[in-house]
Amino acid sequence: LFVDETLAAGTTIGLADDRAHYLRNVLRLQMGAALRLFNGRHGEWRGRIARLSKGAADIAIEVALREQTAGCDLWLAFAPIKRARIDTLVEKATELGISALRPVMTQYTAVERINGERLRAIAIAAAEQSERLSVPEVHGAVTLEKLLADWPGNRHLLLCAEAGSAKPIAEALMSHSSKDLDARAPWAVMIGPEGGFAPGELDGLAKLPFVSAVGLGPRILRADTAALAALACWQAILGDGRSRPPRCASPQL
Ligand code: SAH
């Protein structure tokens, strides 16, 4: 369970409304049941339900189970897409380990508004389900110009380019994996909207020193598919996809 509160031995956390409802009616936990909690700062802790009523629950925090580890520093910059697709995109990208969502308005972006609160709720649920110890940050939408104007120069940008002279993604990432320093550097994956990037946008992006334009093969993928394919490749070649899966999916509490 993700909580905002400080996690420390001997403290008690009070949960209200939705969160108490989730424990009682969704997870069907009862008084005395143990659960695992994280807040993105203090690692994972075992807690026990010390009080449970209709609209409120108290969780007594007992012992630390896992230390907080720094996850991948990997942003997903994406042009907002329609509701059902953006929801799956956020869920799956969270499972794939992104650290931040950076919605970006490009020339052909058709969706004007995003609901940051809903996206954060989806990211929290996906972080809980995938046993991450942090929730990706959900940024507000900015124009492509603004995103690039504020871009931290040391962050590599893997641009998924459906046109132009892009290298195959694996080839581009493998050339980075051989450079030790680069493999630890912060990264971002960027995908365009359903209408694609405007030719001027692609040309402008491809010229920037921190951009590697890559292709994902001969088929045109939908934006959400392209994002997830690129993230999976990045994780496999440069990220934590190289480490082993957890030995036990649900460690005993
Ligand atoms: N309407 C556009 C396709 C847009 S696909 C057209 O027909 O050309 C949406 C986004 O997914 C693209 O902007 C790109 O970022 C990514 N994408 C889709 N297929 C891709 C591919 N084969 N290689 C690289 N990126 C791709």
Key traits:
single chain; 253 residues; eight-stranded parallel β-sheet; binds S-adenosyl-L-homocysteine
Structural class, from helix and strand content? alpha/beta
Query: In angstroms, what separates the terminal alpha carbons?
Result: 13 Å
Number of helices: 8
Name the overall outline: elongated
Residue-averaged pLDDT: 92
Q: What helical percentage do the residues reach?
A: 25-40%
What is the chain-wise order of helices and strands?
EHEEEEHEHEEHEEHHEHEH
The count of strands amounts to 12
| Main sheet overview | 8 strands, parallel
* Strand content range: 15-25%
User: Radius of gyration from the CA trace?
Assistant: 20 Å
| Small molecules bound | S-adenosyl-L-homocysteine
The low-confidence runs, each spanning 5 or more residues with pLDDT under 50, are: none
Question: Overview of this structure, please?
Answer:
The protein is an alpha/beta fold and 253 residues long. The chain has helices spanning 17-26, 83-95, 116-130, 144-149, 169-177, 180-184, 199-207, 223-237; strands spanning 12-16, 34-38, 44-52, 56-66, 74-78, 100-105, 137-138, 142-143, 156-160, 167-168, 187-191, 211-215. Strands 5, 6, 7, 8, 9, 10, 11 and 12 form an 8-stranded parallel beta sheet that branches. It has a 4-stranded antiparallel beta sheet with strand order 1-4-3-2. A hairpin with a 3-residue loop joins strand 3 and strand 4 (56-66). Helix 5 runs parallel beside helix 8. The mean pLDDT is 92. It binds S-adenosyl-L-homocysteine. Residues 160-162, 191-192, 194-197, 215-217, 219-221, 223, 226 line the site of S-adenosyl-L-homocysteine.
